[in-house]
Amino acid sequence: MKLALVCAFLCSSLLAPLECRAQEPAKPADEKPAADAKPAADAKTSSDAAKTNPVKPSPTSLSSGKKKYGQDCAMCHGKDGAGDGDLAEDMKLKLKDLRDAETLKDLSDGDIYSLINNGKGKMMGEEGRLKPDEIWDIVNFVRSLPKK
């Protein structure tokens, strides 16, 4: 009987610290500290900004870009690029008019690609949701807006 009590005591003494550790929430292995958090990308400093557009602004590219723009961008930038999308209005954001040539004149295609891919400020980037050629199609479409 004494032996059974001693064994029970030893087992509970050895297992108690393991039970306490099991109750602590485990941190995910991929969790990064806030200091490592990726800041909103600045188009002028991103490696994407140095890229040159490999996709020619063909009717196919413009059509694809218009479709993707309508799905991912128009909610803020507006159907025609005027910066008057419903979400921008709800968030009380003042967005630039992409139909105005002055808005885009200082941005390279790589800068626009970087803004779309990485985002800026409150704008979330695509970051892997679109293939590079799809982003270049949007760049081509956005470039075509001032001509309309």
Radius of gyration: 26 Å
| Outline | globular
The neighbouring-strand order within the major sheet is 1-2
- The H/E string reads HHHHHHEEH
Termini separation: 93 Å
| CATH superfamily (homologous) name | Cytochrome c-like domain
The helix/strand class is mainly alpha
User: Please, how many helices?
Assistant: 7
What kind of sheet is the major sheet? 2 strands, antiparallel
What's the arrangement of secondary structure elements?
Blueprint (H helix, E strand, L loop, with lengths): L1 H22 L35 H14 L1 H4 L8 H5 L10 H4 L4 H10 E2 L2 E2 L7 H13 L4
Antiparallel strand pairs: 1-2
Helix pairs in contact: 2-7, 6-7
How would you briefly describe this protein structure?
By secondary structure, the protein is an all-alpha fold. It has one domain: Cytochrome c-like domain (Cytochrome Bc1 Complex, Chain D, domain 2), CATH 1.10.760.
Task: Write structural notes for this entry.
- The chain has 148 residues and is an all-alpha fold.
- The chain has a single domain (42-147), classed as Cytochrome c-like domain (Cytochrome Bc1 Complex, Chain D, domain 2, Orthogonal Bundle).
- The protein contains seven helices and two strands, in the order H-H-H-H-H-H-E-E-H.
- The chain has helices at 2-23, 59-72, 74-77, 86-90, 101-104, 109-118, 132-144; strands at residues 119-120, 123-124.
- A two-stranded antiparallel sheet has the order 1-2.
- Mean pLDDT is 78; it is low at 3-45.
